What does this fold into?
Amino acid sequence: MSLLEVRSLRAGYGPVEVLRGIDFHVDEGEVVVILGANGSGKTTTLRALSGMVETSGEVVFDGRSIAGARPEQVAQAGVAHVPQGRGTVTDLTVEENLRLGAYTRRDKEVGTDLERWYEMFPRLAERRQQQAGGMSGGEQQMLAIARAMMARPRLVLLDEPSLGLAPLITQGLFRTLGDMNRDLGTSMLVVEQNATLALAIATRGYVLETGEIVVEGTATELAGNDDVRKAYLGI
Amino acid sequence: MAERARRQRLIVGTVVGLAILGYLLWFPQQQAPADVRLWTTAIYFGIAAMGLNLLTGYNGQVSIGHGAFFGIGAYTTAILVNDHGWSLLATIPVAAALAFVVGVAVGIPALRVKGLYLALVTLGLAVVFPDLTKKFVRGVGGTNLVRVPSASLRPPEWMPGGLQPDQWGFYLALTISLALLGGVWLIVRGRFGRALIAVRDHEAAATTVGVDLARTKVLAFALSALYAGVAGALSVQVTGIANAEKIGTFNLSILFLVAVVIGGTATVFGPLIGGFLVVMIQEQTTDFVADPPFLSGFLSGKEVLSPAIFGIMLIVLMYFLPDGIVGGFRRLLRRILTRRQPAEPLGASVAP
Amino acid sequence: MTVFLSQIMNGIQNGVIYASLGLAIVLIFRTTGILNFAQGEMALFSTYVTWELTRLGLPVWLAIIVSMILAFIGGALIERIVIRPFEQSSPLVLVIVTIGLFLAFNALAQLFFGVEAKALPRAYPDRNWLIGGVSLRSDTLVLIAVLAVECLLLWALLQRTKVGLALRAVASNADSARLLGVSAATMLMLGWGLAAALGCLAGALVVPTTSGLTAGSMQGILVFAFAGVALGGFDSPIGAVVGGLIIGIADALTRQYVPALAGIEIIVPFGLILVVLLLRPQGLFGHVKVERV
It folds into this structure.
């Protein structure tokens, strides 16, 4: 059984329907990417999973329905959401942001995890006592990812991690995400416009167009699909 | 179609406006003096709220100190009438001018101090003002209460019709309020109105399109002070006194703000309606508690409850009409209109 | 010199009171972005509850603690029932709502507890020491001690606990905090509850030092507490304390040394605010809000 199973998910803002009934799933240990142009509903998909927009449909995570749950309940169930724009809590320090990431945990190993992520992202360690709002975009993205991982989530939702970052930094970021998936087995659902990088670390993928899934397949299949290549790989 | 809707609106507006005006002109002839004075109070509350709306609604600067400008107007009028023998009518422009000048002085710091901090500075104004009057005004028995001779409340000689003071006060307030309403209407529609709104919505952007930030903000302050000053001057015509107490001036400032918000911020008519409502609701709750048609066993002797009822009504009103009476009315109107004239099918125009 | 020190003491005593109420105001502003006009009247109401409890035979200190707990619950409920429905409203609407609360609480306090002044006994002996000619009252000492403990506890709560971290996170970025598993709703209730409890404490401390508890007791104090908060910075607990103390001391010194301003001493604290804000528009300890991109 899949870790995340989504069936006929609809979502929107007031009278405007953005998602028109989509089905997808994420298996344990997979990296699944959702590709799509601006306005196709990628961000709304993640926001719907986290209970930040009005939804209908079935969302089953780890055997439990989380459809209609509030954001904090979804987080407590083991889903970490790295929102678009990184969601930095600007008035807190870097370390406080990371500790906040572990808010749902009750165990005593928060300190150990903290050190591990500082090791993974030395830049964060250098700035641990700094106000998080003062960091560069790339650093804030690292912080957002490390903070999500502090929750020891089963599934991480990543909303356009490459947005606003320089190409070199983006490459490093995706490499790190790939490593994390391989080493820790954390499942990921990534929403991206940069299809090349995303497909490089993905197991499978979906293509979203105006709120509907139009293509799905393995990463290799998608990378080989002519329509996908034309629309999202710029070839 | 938009043109037709506009014309329809204009016609309906004119008819309703004339009907209200007709009723208002007739009103003081029929009612007891106390009621006429109450309505006059409602009108000058509306005037103060109209001015504050220019500042808070259109320009985005919140003041909780306009009770002080109101007080400046009231004292100017009362002192000129009582100590210097002026006619009350002649003092009104002076009260307006003085409030305007003080408004300029207060508006200057507002160039740097913003938002809540500005609100708190204006609160200081409301708190300081009563003490200032206590120190510098020598009124009845050495207190800061100034009473004008009752003869000064009578209409001037050239007024025909043998009006009583309360009736004269009502027509005077009504005339002035209409003139000032026209003033707001002209300001809002004109260059200055656009500057006010531009500054409220985005200061930096406003300067790039050539809005003089300092002039706009200070003038907004001064104009709103002028309106409050005129309201204060008119209050002397109704009450025959000028007075200032610490809590009173603060409460007045708050009530003006309440009038703006429940009437409808950044609307032309809203504050006038809001001012009217603030005065009437308070009066009605007081009357209700004093002589309740029901629950009389529970309510008798509990006059203190009326502000509580007023407070709770405010909260409920804000819940159902967050954009004020005028905003709520517009929403209602829009709903009726759209039901009658279904909009064009969506699909055609909203291609992604 | 002794006169000077005595006036400083007077100023501190008043300043501590402004600071305690100011702390409550800052706490709500930080967590919800609301300037709570009803803070003083909520404190007034809970102080009446304290008074009622002492009449039922509870020792004063116990009455204060019990009424603080009740105030906490009351504050949380007010947030849930009255404030929550306005979650999406404009700040101006919320100002009007808290003004509504202000009116309601003041009137209800008069209704339940009558209009005549109530005396609240001290929870400690009323002493007066003369040290080098300077009179030092036990009132002043207790007030300072309570404020110090209050600050310390509040600091520890906000900076050293997980709940405090969550409170600050919600204040800064509620959406993000929720995605990390923090229930923003609970935190907002907690913020209001804490503020109400602090206000209750402030009220209970004021009454013994004044001529008695009346419905107007808290309004003057609210104005000065607002002044202190504006001086210190709306988002800064330290600012509320320092600001409140400065206002209290400035007021006391003006009364003593500037006879020209007799009767209008209040100009000085507000003049001070104006000067400080002209130099530092965000208050002494306030932060300039960094725009999120």
Notes: Residues 16-217 of chain C form one domain.
